[in-house]
Amino acid sequence: MLPKKALLFAAILGAATLALVSCTGGNTGTNSPEPTPARLSATVTISDDGAQNASPVTPVTVHAEHGRLRAVAMVNTETSAEVRGTIDPATLTWTSAEPLGYGSTYRIVAHAVGDNGKQTEQRGTITTVTPEAQAEPNLIPGPAAVADTGVGVGQPIVFQFTEPVTDKAAVEKRLSVVSQPAQKGGWYWIDDQNVHYRPKEYWQPGTTLTVSAKVYGVDFGNGVYGAGDRTETYRVHDSWTAKADGATARMAIFHNGQQVRTMPISMGKDATPTHLGAHVISDKQASYTMDSCTYGVCQGDPDYYRSEERWSLRISNDGEFVHENPNSVSAQGSSNVSHGCINLNAENAQWFFEHFGLGDVVEVTNSGGPRLPVWDLYGDWSLSWEEWQAGSALR
């Protein structure tokens, strides 16, 4: 039989042990369960809801919180045409999948089911901006004009907009020329409506050019917006280059870098010298009326002329052509007597006409004239590459 002191100690030890188990919790199964989260109704938000000048190309989104989207309808209130859109796999967000029209109002109705199983409907409206004017992105040369022949290695690509461009940087960001094989190139703004693209060097023969203007919905400034997008493809044909030398009064012809012919020529006389530099052929006519009044020298001026010429290829907008001129045959190969054109005899003029086309190059040296201005239709090659790059709005 234990002494009384030993019995008292055992009792105290047992009580302490029970207290320790009770404080630590152990695995007694007496814990309280975690509270169940409250299940909420869905909250639906519509981007730009109530906007009065929304961009027609910024996608509209409908998003659900605390639930899932069941259906979304976006309808033009005037035409009743429904806007295409897609719901993401998680059924949380609907996104419009096509551009909207200018100056149009759209009604959006979205249905969702909340985490609590209750249905929710959300309505909204969006009105897009109404332009004061819309600018079309016209292309030069027209793709149809060169669909069969392709373009020459000197051909710049020109977007001519039908309205002035104030925010040139915003527009230029939406323009592209993709060359295959890849070649370095850049844009140059001639003025507020004309922007040119040329490569650093002449195009490689056989190049394919994919040209795009993604300008629909772009703010050109002063209330003008892009009227539509445009994408076209050009093909660069064989390299044809003529080197006209005023000092020798002869022109060497090169096909894919190899000289194939030399022709006697007569260029502009001292009073009307031919411009220096690389000229690009922009038009060709088997028969053409040469009229100096088209560039400001009209009747009454001693230098005025009007004549019918054959085998004519335009090389600038300043009245310069390569063409047949029977009246200067005696001077061809010895002196320069024209009003600025490059004159050939009948045989050479016809041969040149048959082998050269849009985008091919005529390089003029030793003419005594000024350099062809960059703004003279295709004076693009008169600038160095550094000067050309400075004409970009994104420089």
TrEMBL record:
A molecular function (GO) term: acyltransferase activity
UniProt pathway: Cell wall biogenesis; peptidoglycan biosynthesis; Glycan biosynthesis
GO BP: cell wall organization; peptidoglycan-protein cross-linking; regulation of cell shape
SUPFAM superfamilies for this protein: L,D-transpeptidase catalytic domain-like (SSF141523)
Signal peptide: 1-21
UniProt cross-references to InterPro entries, sorted A to Z: Big_10, LD-transpeptidase, LD_TPept_cat_dom, Transpep_catalytic_dom
Gene Ontology terms: cellular component: extracellular region
Active-site annotation: H323, C341
Record's keyword terms, sorted: Acyltransferase, Cell membrane, Cell shape, Cell wall biogenesis/degradation, Lipoprotein, Membrane, Palmitate, Peptidoglycan synthesis, Signal, Transferase
L,D-TPase catalytic domain boundaries: 240-365
Matches recorded under Pfam families: Big_10 (PF17964), YkuD (PF03734)
Record protein name field: L,D-TPase catalytic domain-containing protein
